[in-house]
What does this fold into?
Amino acid sequence: MQKALKDLYGSAILFFYFLKWPYLVGYPFLYFNGLNQNFLLDALWLICLALVIKDIYTMIKNKQINRYRSKQDKEDNPS
It folds into this structure.
């Protein structure tokens, strides 16, 4: 049972790492062109949307932290 859960976890990581952007863009296109409503696919789309928002937030946060650190380094070590 534990091995099956590890395999499922690994599959989920690979799915959401590599397919979140294509699924985030492709699912609305398919939905508006005749795909029937499916709650499971809607839930996967919402998860992908949340992961993309988290990635953007993390990228912006890290960029601001790096700017702050580089500014401190320049103030501490003037050349």
In short: The CA atoms of residues 24 and 46 lie 8 Å apart.
